[in-house]
Amino acid sequence: MVQRNPAARFMPGAWVFPGGSVDEADRESVQGDAEADELAHVACARRELGEEAGIDLDGDVELLPWSRWITPEVVPIRFDTRFYVALAPAHASAEPDGEEVVDAAWMGPADAIERNRSGSFELSFPTIKHLEGLIEYASADEVIEAARAREVKPILPRVVGDRDDFRVVLPGDPEY
Question: For residues 67, 50, 101 and 22, what is the CA-based torsion angle, rounded to 10 degrees?
């Protein structure tokens, strides 16, 4: 996980998974392929992991789709975000870029959630939900195996309540 720069426009100071926007170079790298949009997102994930966390994945390292989240409709700036899982190179150490990212660390899902609950570690809602889902797996290999069998459908959270008292609900929640 990486900690965003406190001066960042989106999620300042929060600990998140490395990521960013698909750029023209990502799209150009996969032109003409029937799966071009998905492959451009994979190229973006590889690039952002290298840029933000200093982890370069060899071309043969498979990035597997894990989830796809779309920002709730009431939010003025919306994102269609894809999350991937992969096995990191052996002994890889995450190094923050010092610009977008000010810190980086490896940690287990339960540890990150506990740090968030204690107030010492800010996590975004989607990051918390991903970590909660990853707790059930005993190893990275189990996550990869699950990803291979996983059907990824877009998740569109909703915001319920008012400005002073609101919560985010997910498909399947009673309030959705």
Answer: -50
